[in-house]
Amino acid sequence: MVNIVLFGPPGAGKGTQSEHIIQKYGLKHISTGDLFRKHLGEGTQLGKEARSYMDNGKLVPDEVVIGMVDETINEHKEAPGFIFDGFPRTVAQAEALDKLLADHKTGIACMIELDVPQEELKKRLLERGKTSGRADDQNEEKINVRIGEYLTKTVPVAKFYAGQDKNCKINGVGSVEGIFGDIVKAMDTHY
Ligand code: ADP
């Protein structure tokens, strides 16, 4: 099993690059944002718990996210590996993920970080908001809250993986194909 963390701020292009990575490597995609939106759409208890946090651009509490990821990993034990997108977003989540994967006798091979300047992120999110139907993409104040959450709670996750010598930073500005080419080079050193 080869498991990858795709890391970066909101609007860095994680979803777009995930699609390319899945196609090439056949990994199972676990996007906590997509999973929450599915729960929200289906009106589940978990969706109800997550809604107010998501609507305000805040992170959903760790125990809720970790439980959901645990369940998803268990549902896909046959997968050749996972690509985690939008998770882990706190150091507590990163520690929990190591434990969950250790229970399955596996671990994280590498963390790929997409590096994009803040001004570019805001531009991309507002642009996405015009078509995505996501309320959290349509309001500059909410975007600022999300970027703030990223800077205070998520940036330390990069240090966590650097401490394990697993981080790889990639320039996230440029053509989708060019960025994907750089990701492939980074991933192939871990395969
Ligand atoms: P983006 O990366 O564009 O902000 P996501 O789709 O990954 O969007 O996440 C949308 C929202 O879902 C976040 O703002 C947050 O409220 C919630 N969320 C997603 N993943 C996590 C996570 N790992 N921990 C806490 N909250 C999360």
Write up this protein:
The chain is of the alpha/beta class. The chain has one domain: Rossmann fold (3-Layer(aba) Sandwich), CATH 3.40.50. It is 59% helix and 14% strand. Helix 1 (14-25) packs across helix 8 (176-188) and helix 4 runs parallel beside helix 5. The radius of gyration is 16 Å and the shape is globular. The protein starts with a strand and ends with a helix. The mean pLDDT is 95.
Radius of gyration: 16 Å
The strand count comes to 5
Bound molecules: adenosine-5'-diphosphate
CATH domain class: Alpha Beta
Strand content: 5-15%
Reported CATH architecture:
3-Layer(aba) Sandwich
Instruction: Sketch the major β-sheet.
Output: 5 strands, parallel
How many helices in DSSP terms? Answer: 8
What structural class should be given to the helix and strand makeup? alpha/beta
